[in-house]
Amino acid sequence: MKPKDYDMTEADVAWCPGCGNFSILRSLKKALADLEILPENLVFVSGIGQAGKLPHYIRGNVFNGLHGRSLSPATGIKAVNPELTVIDVSGDGCMYGEGGNHFMHTVRRNPNITNLVHNNMVYGLTKGQASPTSQKAFNTPLQVDGVFLEPFNPLSVAIALDASFVARVYSGDRKQTIEIFKEAIKHKGYSLVDIFQPCVTFNRVNTKKWFKEHTYYLEEDHDPLDRNMAFSRAIETREYPLGIFYKNLNKRTFEDNLNVYKDEKSPLFQRKFEIDKIRALVDSNR
Predict the structure, then answer these.
(1) pLDDT score recorded for residue 49
(2) Reported pTM
(3) Could you tell me how many helices (H) and strands (E) the chain has, helices first?
(4) Are the C-beta atoms of 120 and 64 separated by less than 8 Å?
(5) Sheet order of strands, 240-247 included
(6) Considering only CA atoms, which of 101, 98, 250 is closest in space to residue 165?
(7) Number of domains observed in the structure of the chain
(8) How far is CA 260 from CA 78, 98, 245, 249, 254, in A?
C-alpha cells in the first residue's frame, strides 16, 4: 500500500502552517502503508483539540469523543472486535490533563491499542494556556508570572504502572517516528508514543530549534526490557531521550483477561446467540 491510500484530500485542514501535526500525519500514513493495514480495518478514536483533528484527515473509521475521555471508547471498540487496529490520537492537555485518570487506568488494563499523544507543551486549541507538560517559568496569557508546577512526565508514570510499550519521538525526525509508530502498532498491548512537536503559534520557547538542541536518541545498547533502566532514562530532563524506553512482552491484554474469546472467536457484536441470551434475561426481569 501507499500513503496516498489514506488521503482525505477533500478535508479542509485547520492546523496552522508549520504545525508539527502535519509531519505526524505524514509519518502515520507511511507507517500504516508499510504495515498494509486496510482503512476499513482501522479505527481512530480522538478527543478534543488540534491533535484530535488528525483522524479527520486520514482515511479510516473515526470515533470522536469527549475531552480527555477517548481511551474508554478505544478500549471498548477493541474489546468487542479485536481484529480491528485501534489508534487513540490525543494531545498533552486532553490526554494528560482532563484525561489523566483515564490514562493511568488504561495503562493498568493494557488493552491492545496504540496511544499517540501530540505533546507541544501548550494548549494549542484554546489559545495558549499552559498544559500539564509545560515547563517551569513558561509564560502564557493566563500564567503571566510563569508556570510554577512540575511538568507531568507521562513516560515515567507509564513505566511506573508497567505499561507494556513506552516510547517518545520528535515529529521532525520522520524516519525514526515512522519506525517507532510501526513498532507501537505491531505491539500486542497498550502502546504509548509521546510525540514532541512544535506549536508555532502559541509556544515560542519549545520550537523546532529547541527540540533539536534538547533531545537525543537512546543508545543502541539500551535494553527496553530493563524496567529500572527505562525509568531512570524517562526522568532525564536536562536533555530528553527519544526512542523506545520500555517493553513488557509478558503482560496479558485487557481482551485476553476478559476471556470472552476463549471458545468463540467471532467478535462480540456478531454473536446473535449472546444477544438473544441477554434479551431473554432482560425480559425475564421485567
Answers:
(1) 87
(2) 0.91
(3) 10, 8
(4) no
(5) 61-64, 42-46, 85-91, 114-119, 191-196, 165-170, 240-247, 215-217
(6) 250
(7) 1
(8) 12, 31, 32, 22, 11
Amino acid at 167: A
Alpha carbon of residue 276 to chain centroid: 36
In a domain, 285, yes or no: no
Please check whether residue 269 lies inside any domain of the structure.
no
Mean pLDDT, each 10-residue run in order, the chain (286 residues)? 84 89 96 97 94 94 91 95 96 93 97 98 88 92 90 98 98 98 98 97 95 97 98 97 98 88 64 63 69
Determine contact, residues 45/13, Cβ cutoff 8 Å. Answer: no
d(CA 95, CA 97): 6
Tell me the CATH number at 166.
3.40.50.970
Joined together, the cell numbers standing for residue 45 give 478514536
Q: At what angle do helices 71-80 and 100-109 cross, to 10 degrees?
A: 30
Contacts with 285 (C-beta within 8 Å, 6 or more apart), sequence order:
none
